[in-house]
Design brief:
Helix content: 10-25%
Number of strands: 4
Largest sheet: 2 strands, antiparallel
Number of helices: 1
Distance between the termini: 8 Å
Shape: globular
Structural class: alpha+beta
Oligomer: single chain
Order of helices and strands: EHEEE
Length: 110
């Protein structure tokens, strides 16, 4: 699992990630499920990062095998207004710097 949060990712970067995933898994389809519900949590003493938990909703008849529930990958794209992002994480457009990245202290999962 990647521990880097890419802030101010460009549409091209998102496209590149989707193409990389598809290229590494040519027998797979990309699915854009709706999200419902969403829960948000502020940082705590133990978890020094914001958390957003979601349920991805796939229609009942869309999967023809329960194996699909253990054979998948996920990446998320969030839309957050720029005014809600700390200045230190924004790309300096005048200098043409790359996307700001933030290392998170998320636990590794397997």
């Amino acid at each position: 699992m990647s521990r880097v949060c890419h802030i101010n990712a460009s549409p091209g970067q998102i496209k590149q990630i989707a193409e990389t995933i598809k290229g590494a898994n040519p027998d797979s389809l990309l699915v854009l499920p709706p999200v419902n519900p969403i829960s948000v949590y502020s940082p705590t003493k133990k978890k020094k990062y914001h958390r957003i938990t979601v349920e991805l909703v796939i229609p009942e008849g869309a999967l023809n095998s329960s194996a699909a529930l253990t054979d998948f990958g996920v990446f998320a794209v969030l839309r957050i207004p720029e005014k809600h992002i700390s200045e230190q994480y924004l790309t300096d457009k005048k200098k043409g710097e790359d996307t700001a990245n933030a290392e998170t202290e998320t636990p590794q999962t397997t």
